[in-house]
Specification:
This protein is an alpha+beta fold. It contains 8 helices and 12 strands. Strands 1-2-3-4-5-12-6-11-10-9-8-7 form a 12-stranded mixed beta sheet, with helices on both faces. Strand 9 and strand 10 form a beta hairpin.
Amino acid sequence: MPWSFSADPESYAEQVLDLLSARPDANTIALTVLETVRAGQRFSEAEPLFGWFTDNGAVTGAVSMTPPYGVLLGEFPAGSEAELVAGLREEKAKVPDVMGTVEAAERFAAGWTAGQDLRTELAMRHRLYTVDDLRLPAPPAGGARAAVPADLDLLMDWLVRFHDEAEASSASPPRAIYQRRVELGLVWLWEDERQIPVSMASRNVLVAGVSRIGPVYTPPEQRRHGYGAAVTAACTQDALDRGARQVVLFTDLANPTSNAIYQQIGYRAVDDRLILRFVAGTE
């Protein structure tokens, strides 16, 4: 079958890096996940699984699974879904969910549930944004700074709270991954006029010229002061200053506030993504 699979990120990168890098904004998650795993980081103890699709000698498809997350659809050629489903079943892959563009996620889900005692649930609908003209019309009191290792305990507390509030997955935020981000200067804090941290914005490593912001978190008691917009703008500007050709982020479409805020500081909507969860039985 034209889908090939490997647990080795280097073998996967050799096959798909050019394909994914041809559309680095659309494939920002696929690229940063691959970069994270190639750097020796893991999202759990379970082994990852990578797949690529070959058509007449050319690689035209790329998907990955990094447990506890499900199938991430990078490039997913039309007509390849039956072979992908068959290949994943042959690999005995446990697939809790799928993430991709609306069309791709629905196409995979239809194939994965066909003939099975499974149905899909919408876990989350995301919108991808890219920055066009970064601006911050009225900064709040205080200022931004890069996080340092001494901030890590606070950051992890906030990340757990963010996860509980906003994430579709049951996975906990991996401390090692955020420790590396802090060491690389990829996590920013907004401090109020008393120099107390009131909001954070993190971003992924730069891959193929693209940096992706997220997560952004402000504790509930500090919201409605403009801190989230301010720290996002600071983190975005730092990415641009350090060579990013493009800065992107995802929002939860169920949160109209964050969608409005990011547009106000210069982000433009690109497309929508779905996370569809697979559950047993019929409704």
